[in-house]
Amino acid sequence: MAVAAASPPSSGTIRVAAGDALSTIASRYHTTVAGLVAANRIADPNLVVAGQLLRLPGMGSTTATYAPSSGTIRVAAGDALSTIASRYHTTVAGLVAANRIADANLVDAGQLLRLPGPGAAGVTYTPSTRGALPANLLAYPDRLTLRSEFVREALAHGVPVSLLEAVCWWESGWQAGVVSSTGAVGVCQIEPSTAAYVNSVLVPGRRLDVHSPADNITMAAAYLHQLLVGAGGNERVAIGGYYQGLASVKRQGMLPETRAYVNGIRAYVPIFAATG
Asked: Most CB atoms within 10 A, among 51, 121, 220, 275?
């Protein structure tokens, strides 16, 4: 089924559907994972249960606050800055600045990090406040111009804009000239076999050029929609299918590197959603 945007219901609460993740719900109702976590006091943002009622932020309360017990946290094994930023409702750029981190891709288990925010008491999320895009994106205005392409193609193919943006950010950093060791090309790292499949099956007759940034994004949107349909709307499985192949994910489950890939992308979804 197509993944479509929805307007917040008048009651201010929604019921979690089977296969929903907080990032899916946030995109559907034009909010963020951080806002949902704060509004519902969710302990684990990666765990919601089908049938669970969730309050949408902004309904009757304009500000939600998350305050950890101190202004510092300890990096857990397997954590990346993107994961930590999503968990504590901040951004990678904020963590880098607050801790003078030289390499945003390298943090060590056990390392203490200061959380950015007012003083050291906590982080405040206001639903109307726009978040910060990744610093490496803000540094390249030519890549920022691609956001209109992401919006247009995501809406045209019925996929969440922030999900499409996050997938392609994780794949290439929105760099049009990147070619992987397996031959994946461009902004969304489209494999030659995927390009052929999209052109022949998903958009027949259009003859999209994988080397064109706009066409590359179109291919990714069409393919991601197909993956979401094949995954029954399960965002995690669809993302895993983009990396590992949907048939492989269904047959043998996600490989460890696929799980890391999925978690990394899902950590960026709320960042892009908050800045859309």
From this structure: 220
Rounded Cα distance between 111 and 73, Å, is: 8
Contact 188, 219 (CB under 8 A): yes
- For residue 112, what is the enclosing H or E element? strand 112-114
Tell me how far CA of residue 149 lies from CA of 213, 217, 226, in angstroms: 9, 7, 19
Closest CA to 223 of 186, 254, 178, 259: 186
Neighbour-count burial of 31, counting CB atoms closer than 10 A to its CB (0-12 exposed, 13-18 middle, 19+ buried): buried
Average pLDDT over residues 73-102: 72
Whether the pTM exceeds 0.85: the reply is: no
Residue 80 has a pLDDT of 77
Question: What domains are defined for the chain?
Answer: 13-64 (3.10.350.10), 67-125 (3.10.350.10), 138-274 (1.10.530.10)
In terms of Cα–Cα distance, which of 268, 261, 266 is closest to 241?
261
Give the model confidence (pLDDT) of 139-171 as tens digits. Answer: 888 888 999 999 999 999 989 999 999 999 989
Contact criterion met (CB below 8 Å) for 252 and 244: no
Max intra-chain CA distance, the chain: 58
CA–CA gap between residue 44 and residue 51 (Å, rounded): 17
For the stretch 70-96, what's the b/e string if a residue is b when 16 or more beta carbons lie within 10 angstroms of its beta carbon? ebebebeeebbbbbbbbbbbbbbbbbb
